[in-house]
Amino acid sequence: MTAVNTFVTIWRFLLTLGPSAMVILMLNKGIKDYRLDIVDEQHRVRSIHIEQLRHSYDFIIVGGGSAGCVLAARLSENPAWTVLLLEAGGDEPLLMDLPQMYPVFQRSPWDWKYSTEPSDRYCLAMEDQRCFWPRGKVLGGCSSINAMMYVRGNRHDYDHWAELGNPGWNYDNILHYFRKAEDMRVPGYERSPYHGHGGPISVERYRSPSPLLEIFMAAATQLGLAHPDGDFNGRTQSGFAPPHGTLRDGLRCSANKGYMRRSWQRPNLDIVLKAFVQRLIIDPRGSKRVQGVRFEYGLGEYDVRASREVILAAGALASPQLLMVSGVGPQEQLQPLGIEVVQHLPGVGGNLQDHISTSGAIYTFESPQPGRHLSFLVPDQLNEESVNQFLHEHRGFFYAMPVSEVMGFISTRHQKSGRDWPDVQLFMGSYGYGADGGMVGRRGAAITLDNYANAFEPLMYQDSFVIAPLLLRPRSRGFVQLRSPDAKTHPTIHANYYDDPLDMAIMVEGLKLAHLLTQTPAMQRLNATLNIYEWRNCPEVEYLSDAFWECLARYYSQTIYHPVGTCKMAPDSDPFGVVDPRLRVRGLRGLRVIDASVMPTIPNGNTNAPTLMIAERGADMIKEDWHHYSHGGWI
C-alpha cells in the first residue's frame, strides 16, 4: 500500500506543478505591472562595480544578513567612516515580499541549504534522517526568507546573560535597542513603554487570516490561556494571541528593506553583492591584528583592508566556519586539516543551540458550513482570483501567514521556577502537510516521499490544522565542525537534539497540551481529530501515550530556523567563550563577531528580533569605543 501511495503522491506533484507555476508566473508579472510599491526601483540596493572597490575601509562587515544590514546602516551614519558590506547573495526577488510565499525560498538559490548530520534520534521521517536547515543567501539574510514572527524573547533570558558574566546585557539595558529598531504599527501600543515608533523595522499584524484564528483563540480562552495583553513583547510572555510580524503594509519588512534601502546610497558605504568571503587576513608578524579579508567575486579574488575593524556577521554557521578556516578555533580541529593555528579558541563552533519543534501533529476537522473550507487549502487559493486580490485590492491569500495564526507560550510541569519564563512555544497553523499536496511543505521539511505518502496522503486536501510545540530552552548542545579548509565546503552540523532527556520530556508535555486544546468545546464542535495515520511510524506503542508523542517528536523533528551560540559571549573566566561582552574576539585585535552566534543561551522565542537588537547594541559599542579611545579600545 505504501508503494501505491508513493506512486500517487509523485504523480500528483507532477500534475499540480504546471498549473501552480503558471499562477506564480502570472503573479510575478502582475507585481511588475501593478505593484510598484514592491518593485521599489528607486530604493533597491545596487552593488558597486568591482573596479570602484577601495583599497582600504575603516570597517568591513562580512555578511549582509539581519545583523550585517543593521551594522552597515548604523556605522555609515558617521560620514567620516568608510564602510564595506560584503554579501554572498544578491538582492531580494519580488516574490519575497509576500508572506505566503516564504516557504518557496527554502531549498532554492536564495538558501544556503545546510543540513545536519544523520541521526537515529531525531528527523527520522526526513531524507537521510537529516534535518534541513535553511539559511538566507540574500541581502537581508534570514529576515528575507523567514516567517517574519516578531518575538523578542523573555526578560529573564537577558538577565541570565548578565548573570553569566556579561554586564550590560540585562533586559532593562537592552530594551532600548529593541525599541530603537522598531516601528510599532499595531493599534493600541502607541503609549506602550515596551515599544518603539519610527525605527527601521515596522511591526504589524498579519492580514487575511482564516476563520480558524477565532476558533484557536476560543480554545485557548476555554482553557484560561488567552494572553492578557495580546503582546508577547510587553509586560508578560505567557498566553495565546495572534503574533505580530515584521511587516510593512502587510508585506515583509526584512533588514534589507528596513535598514539598507534607506542608507545604501551614502557615499561612504560600499556594498558588494555576490561576494564570497574566503578567509580573514591576519597579521603574520605576530600582533594577531585582523587586517582585512579575502573574497571571491566573479572569476577573481580580492584582498581588502580594514583600518579599524573587521566585523563577522555571517550567522551562527558561517561565522565560526570563517574563524576556523582563518586559523581561529579549536587547534585539535584545525591542525588535522592543515590549517595554521593563529589563536586556539576551543569554544568556536561549540555551544550550538536551536529551537526544535514537532510538526507532525496534524488534526482534521469538519467545517460547520458544507462546501466552505475554514483552513487554507492551496488548490482553493492558488488561482487567478487570489492574484487579482493581491494586485488590485491588497488583500487575500498571499498576505496570509497560515503557519502560525495564533501563537502561545506556556509553562509545563517541568518549569518549576514559578516565574513568567515559559518553556514551550506553540504555533497554531491553519493548514497541514496535505494542504498543498506536498509541493512546498513536504519539500521544505525534507520529509521522504514514502513517509509523506504513508502518513499524509490519506488526508490530502482535507480541512486540517497543526499545533506544533517548540522547545524554548533546550539543555542539549550541539557543535559545528570543519569538514575542509575551504570555506565553500559546508561544515558538519551536529544538532544533538534531545541529547538531554529533559528536552524530550518537555516536548512530550507540549504535545499533550496541544492535544488538550483540541478537546475543548470550540474544537470539538468541529470534530477535531488527530491524524491517526501517523501512528504507522510506531505501531508498537500505545495510542496517545507518552511513547506515542515521543515517537512523533523523533520522526517529525522540525527546526524553526534559530541556530545560535557558536561564538559564545562570555567573561574571561569561561574557557569556551569566544567574544567578550563588547563582542571582541579573544586574543585578536580588530575583530568582532556581531550576530546570533554570540548568544550565550537561546532566547525564549524567534531569534530575528534579538539578532537585530544585538547588532544595534554592537554598533553603539563600536561608536563608543572609537569615540573614547584613539585605538578603539583595542590594546
Task: Describe the overall structure.
- The strands form 8 sheets. Strands 1, 2, 11, 12, 13, 14 and 26 form a 7-stranded mixed beta sheet that branches. A 6-stranded antiparallel beta sheet has the order 7-19-20-21-18-24.
- Helix content is 28%, strand content 17%.
- The longest helix is centred in the N-terminal third of the chain and has 33 residues.
- Strand 15, helix 9 and strand 16 form a beta-alpha-beta unit.
- Helix 1 crosses helix 13, helix 5 crosses helix 17 and helix 14 crosses helix 16.
- About 1% of the residues have low confidence.
- The chain has 635 residues and is of the alpha/beta class.
